[in-house]
Amino acid sequence: MAKGANKYGPTRGEYMIRLAISLGGLGLLAFAIAYRGWPEGPGLVEVVGFAGLFFGGSAVMALRGVRR
Questions:
Q1: What tens digit of pLDDT does each residue of 24-65 get?
Q2: Domain boundaries, the chain
Q3: Strand, helix or coil at 12?
Q4: Are 20 and 65 in contact (CB under 8 A)?
Q5: How many angstroms separate the CA atoms of 41 and 63, rounded?
Q6: Using an 8 Å Cβ cutoff, are 11 and 48 in contact?
Q7: Spatial distance between the Cα atoms of 53 and 39, rounded to a whole number of angstroms
Q8: How far is residue 12's CA from residue 51's CA, in Å, rounded to a whole number?
């Protein structure tokens, strides 16, 4: 086993799938904003804030897992 490898954690392939889904979600979010325009009021927090944080955070964590 490689040094520092966790035998119970996700594999590199699982991290790649998570990264692809996260980037796809960010792409769909960008498409929705480009198509419908920038949301106003509470929609801004809901759409850009929550979805952006979820997909962006997932992408960052998956990228860290892939690089290990």
A1: 999 999 998 899 888 888 878 888 889 999 999 999 999 999
A2: 18-67
A3: helix
A4: no
A5: 32
A6: no
A7: 16
A8: 24
